[in-house]
C-alpha cells in the first residue's frame, strides 16, 4: 500500500507516491475575467464631464471616479486632478461552483478533482433507488449521443490543468419518449392530506367522508431521483479515492446526494416569448430559461410571501452558459420596500433581460409588500406594473433624464429591451420624447407620458403562457 499525500506534500516536478481522486461533484462552470489595474492622474480640461472622462478608460464608470476621488457630486472644474484606476482584461479564470440539484434537460458539468498525474478518469451515475433506471447506470446525453460511461476530459484552461477533469452532459435520455417517461415519474407527488382552507385532514379521513365538496388535496414534494458518482481513474501508480481505503463512490451520503427533478416545478421561460407554468406547491419558486443556444438553464429560486409576491433581491446576476443570454439587475437603493413583483411578471422580466442580454438594469419599483401601490406610483398594483431607469451608454445603472441628457441614452440597447419586454407580454410602455441631432424620437413600443423623462413604466401585461403542471 502506497503512502497517501495531501496537497501540502507536493512539490513541483516530484511525482506523488499515490494519486488521489479527491472529490467528484456536479457543477456550474464559471469564467471570470483577470484584470490588470493601472492607476494614473488626469487633469480636467475644458469640455470635460465625468462620463466623458470615464469613456477614455477601460472598465471605468463615472461612479468609479467619484468613489476613488471622494467626490459627492459630478461637478468638476478645469485644472482639477483626478486619480483614475483603469482595468484591462488580460485573461480568464475558470472555476466550478458545486450544485446539489438539477432538472431533467439541464446541462451540467461533472467534475473530478485529483492530485497527481492521471491518464484517464471515467464516471458513471448511480441512482440511490431505482426510479429512472432499472437499478443500473443513468444514461445522459453528450453531443447528441446517449452514454452511461462518461469520460472526463483534460481541461484546456491553464488554471485547471493537472488538478481537474470534467465533462458537460445533459440530464436526459436521447429519445423524447423516454424523456417524457422520466418527467412523468419525477412529476408524481404523494397526497399528504386534504384541506378546506381552514383545517387539514388525513387521506384516510377524507376517504371516509360522504360529502367531499370544497376539499382540495395537499401534496408533498415531487419525487426525486438521487444520484451518486462512481469514479474509475487510470494512472501510473497507486490510486486512492479521498484517501486510503475510501470508496470510489462520491455523494452517496445523507445530505450529499444530487437531486434530479422535473423542471415542471416552476416557470420555464422560452425563447419564443412563451412562459410555461409548472407546479408551485410551496413558497419557493424556481425559474428556468431557454438560452440562445436552445438549452434550458436554471436561473434561480425566489421566495413568495403570503400575498403571492416575490421581493426582488437588491442585486442579482445570472451568468448563462451562453454569454449572450446573461443578465443582471439591481433595485434602486432605498426602494427595496417597493420591490415586490408577481411571479409571472418576474418570469417576463427575466425573459426580457436575458433576450436583450442586459447586465445594468436598475429597477425603480413595482409594488409594496401587500401588493398595494401608494403615491406617486399608484398603478403598480399586485406586482404587475413597474418602473425602470433608462439604460445609459456607460452601463452604470445610474439615473438618466432623457429630456436633458439624451446623448447618454443607449438608444439601441434600450430599444432592444423594450422589444423584449413587449415580446414577453408588456404591451404598453410609457416613456418620454427626446431629441438626438435635432430629431425628436420615442422609444419602441412606448408612448409619450408626462413625468416619464427619468424612467420607463411597463404595463398592459398580457403574457403568452402554457400550463405544464398537473
List the helices and strands and how they pair.
Layout: E1 18-43, H1 50-54, H2 62-69, E2 81-98, E3 101-103, E4 107-115, E5 120-127, E6 140-142, E7 145-147, E8 150-152, E9 164-170, H3 176-187, E10 189-195, E11 200-201, H4 203-208, E12 216-222, E13 225-234, E14 238-241, E15 249-250, E16 258-261, E17 266-269, E18 274-277, E19 284-290, E20 296-303, E21 310-311, E22 315-318, E23 327-331, E24 340-341, H5 343-356, E25 361-365, E26 386-388, H6 411-423, E27 426-431, E28 434-436, E29 439-441, E30 446-448, E31 456-461, E32 464-467
Helix pairs in contact: 5-6
Protein name: LysM domain-containing protein
Pfam family, one: LysM
Domain LysM: 40-84
What this model shows, in words?
There is one protein chain. By secondary structure, the protein is mostly beta strands. The protein has 4 domains: 20-28 and 96-185 and 224-250, Immunoglobulin-like (Sandwich); 34-93, Membrane-bound Lytic Murein Transglycosylase D, Chain A, CATH 3.10.350.10; 188-219, no CATH class; 266-467, Muramoyl-pentapeptide Carboxypeptidase, domain 2 (2-Layer Sandwich). Helix content is 12%, strand content 39%. It has helices at 50-54, 62-69, 176-187, 203-208, 343-356, 411-423; strands spanning 18-43, 81-98, 101-103, 107-115, 120-127, 140-142, 145-147, 150-152, 164-170, 189-195, 200-201, 216-222, 225-234, 238-241, 249-250, 258-261, 266-269, 274-277, 284-290, 296-303, 310-311, 315-318, 327-331, 340-341, 361-365, 386-388, 426-431, 434-436, 439-441, 446-448, 456-461, 464-467. The strands form 8 sheets. The chain has a 7-stranded mixed sheet, covered by helices on one side. Strands 3, 5, 8, 13, 15 and 16 form a 6-stranded mixed sheet that branches. Strands 1, 2, 4, 9 and 14 form a 5-stranded mixed sheet that branches. β19 (284-290) and β20 (296-303) form a beta hairpin. The longest helix is centred in the C-terminal third of the chain and has 14 residues, at 343-356. It is flat and about 75 Å long. It starts with 17 loop residues before the first strand and ends with a strand. This is LysM domain-containing protein.
Amino acid at each position: 500500500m502506497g503512502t497517501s499525500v495531501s496537497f501540502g506534500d507536493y512539490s513541483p516536478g516530484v511525482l506523488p507516491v499515490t494519486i488521489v481522486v479527491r472529490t467528484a461533484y456536479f457543477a456550474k462552470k464559471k469564467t471570470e475575467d483577470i484584470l490588470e489595474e493601472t492607476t494614473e492622474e488626469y487633469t480636467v480640461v475644458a469640455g470635460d464631464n465625468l462620463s466623458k472622462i470615464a469613456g477614455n478608460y477601460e472598465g471605468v464608470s463615472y461612479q468609479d471616479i467619484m468613489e476613488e476621488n471622494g467626490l459627492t457630486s459630478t461637478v468638476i472644474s478645469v485644472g482639477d486632478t483626478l486619480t483614475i484606476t483603469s482595468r484591462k482584461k488580460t485573461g480568464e479564470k475558470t472555476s466550478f461552483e458545486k450544485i446539489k440539484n438539477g432538472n431533467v434537460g439541464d446541462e451540467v458539468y461533472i467534475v473530478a478533482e485529483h492530485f497527481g498525474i492521471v491518464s484517464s478518469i471515467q464516471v458513471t451515475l448511480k441512482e440511490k433507488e431505482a426510479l429512472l433506471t432499472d437499478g443500473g447506470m443513468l444514461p445522459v446525453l453528450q453531443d447528441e449521443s446517449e452514454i452511461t460511461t462518461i469520460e472526463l476530459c483534460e481541461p484546456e484552461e491553464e488554471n485547471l490543468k493537472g488538478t481537474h477533469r470534467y465533462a458537460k452532459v445533459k440530464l436526459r435520455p436521447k429519445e423524447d419518449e423516454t424523456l417524457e417517461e422520466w418527467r412523468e415519474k419525477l412529476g408524481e407527488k404523494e397526497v399528504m392530506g386534504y384541506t378546506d382552507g381552514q383545517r387539514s385532514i388525513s387521506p384516510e379521513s377524507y376517504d371516509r367522508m360522504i360529502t367531499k365538496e370544497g376539499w382540495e388535496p395537499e401534496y408533498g414534494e415531487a419525487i426525486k431521483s438521487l444520484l451518486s458518482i462512481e469514479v474509475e481513474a487510470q494512472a501510473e501508480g497507486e490510486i486512492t479515492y479521498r484517501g486510503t481505503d475510501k470508496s470510489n463512490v462520491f455523494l452517496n451520503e445523507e445530505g450529499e446526494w444530487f437531486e434530479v427533478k422535473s423542471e415542471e416545478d416552476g416557470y420555464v421561460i422560452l425563447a419564443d416569448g412563451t412562459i410555461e407554468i409548472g407546479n408551485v406547491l410551496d413558497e419557493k419558486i424556481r425559474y428556468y430559461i431557454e438560452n440562445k443556444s436552445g438549452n434550458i438553464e436554471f436561473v434561480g429560486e425566489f421566495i413568495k410571501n403570503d400575498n403571492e409576491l416575490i421581493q426582488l433581491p437588491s442585486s442579482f446576476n445570472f451568468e448563462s452558459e451562453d454569454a449572450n443570454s446573461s443578465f443582471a439587475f439591481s433595485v434602486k437603493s432605498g426602494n427595496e420596500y417597493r420591490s415586490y413583483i408577481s411571479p409571472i411578471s418576474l418570469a417576463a422580466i427575466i425573459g426580457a433581460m436575458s433576450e436583450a442580454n442586459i447586465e445594468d438594469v436598475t429597477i425603480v419599483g413595482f409594488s409594496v409588500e401587500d401588493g398595494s401601490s401608494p403615491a406617486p406610483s399608484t398603478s403598480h398594483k399586485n406586482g404587475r406594473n413597474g418602473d425602470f431607469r433608462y439604460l445609459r451608454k456607460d452601463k452604470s445603472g445610474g439615473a438618466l433624464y432623457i429630456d436633458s441628457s439624451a446623448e447618454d441614452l443607449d438608444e439601441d440597447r434600450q430599444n432592444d429591451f423594450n422589444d423584449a419586454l413587449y415580446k414577453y407580454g408588456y404591451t404598453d410602455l410609457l416613456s418620454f420624447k427626446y431629441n438626438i441631432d435635432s430629431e425628436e424620437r420615442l422609444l419602441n413600443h412606448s408612448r409619450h407620458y408626462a413625468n416619464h423623462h427619468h424612467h420607463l413604466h411597463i404595463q398592459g401585461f398580457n403574457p403568452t403562457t402554457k400550463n405544464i403542471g398537473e
